Amino acid sequence: MKKLLLSLTMLFTFSLLTAQVPLNNGSFENWNGSASTQQPNGWTTALVGNIITEVFGVQVPIPVNTYFGSRVSDAHNGSYALQLQPANVGIPGTEYNINFPGVAQLGVAEGFNIPLQAILDIVSMFTDSTGVNPGDIDPTVLTSLAQVFAPGDSCSKTPQSLNFWMKFAPMENDEVQVIAYSRSNGQPVSYAEASIDQPANEYTYVSIPFDTPGQPCDSISIIIMAGNFGTADLNTVLLVDDVTITQAGVGVADRNATQFHTYPNPATDYVRVAPEVAEPYRCQVYDLQGRLLRVVESDGGQATVDVSDLARGIYTLTIDQNGMTSNHKVVVR
To answer: What's the CATH code, domain 2-12+22-246?
Structure first.
C-alpha cells in the first residue's frame, strides 16, 4: 500500500464536529452505457485504451476494454450499489498479462495509449517486494500511469474523512485498498488510505481519516480497489454504496451535533465514550496508516473501547451518530 501511495504522490491533539456530504453519484443510483459497458455516472470503473507493442519494427496498438464494475440491486440504500471484481488485463495468450484488482475512481478517465514496456514497469512498481525508489522511475512511465487516472472532483477544503458502506467476499489474500487525496494546483496536499482484509457478509460502515484535514485544495481523487496487483483472484467481490466525505464546518447542523466525552487519554486498557445525547452511535478506531482496528456499537449509553492489545502510539477514534461524525485523537501507552 505504501508503494502505491508513493507512486500516486509522485504523480501528481484534535476533536472536530463534522457533517457528512454526499459525493457525485456516491449512492451509485445513476448509470450509463449498455449492460456490458455500464459505468456509474461520474465514476470510472474500467480500463479502456490501447497497449502499444512493436511487431517487426512497427508500433501496433492492442485494444484494452476491461470493465471491473457492474450495477447490482443488493444496495445499502436506494436501488443500486457498485460491484467490483478483479479482471485479467493485458495481451491474452502471452506472458504480458496480469490480474488487476477491480478499480473504481471518482471522475471520468480518458482513454490511454501506453507502451507495453511501461505497463510492465508499472506492474513491477506495485509487485516488487524491494519497494520503489523514486529516483529509479523513468518519468515516461509516470506519464503513462497518469493516463489511467480519473481527474476526481472539485473540493475546496480537505475533508476530515472518506466514508462508505461495503460488503466484501475476498478470495485467497485479497484486500480492499483505498486511497483518497486532495490536490492544490495538481499537487497532493492530504491523504486518506486503508487496507481491509476482513470479509464483510453484511453492509459494514468504513470511515478513513485524512492525515491533514482542513487543508485548502481545489480537487479530490478517490480510488477504491478490490484485490491485489498481480495476485488478485477473479472471484473476489466487493460491493460499495453510499460514498461520502466528512467536512468540518460551523453550520446549524454542526452546532446541533452531539458531543462525546472520551477518557482516559492517554489510555492503557480501554477508552470510555460518553455521549451527551442517548441515541445509538458507532465507534471506530484507526491507526495512523488508516487501518480499521476496532468497531464498537452502542444503543446510546456509555461505550467501552478495548485498546489493551494495541501497540503504543496515536490512534483516531471516529464516532458516528445521526449522520454526524466526531473525530478524537487517542494516545495508547
So the answer is: 2.60.120.260
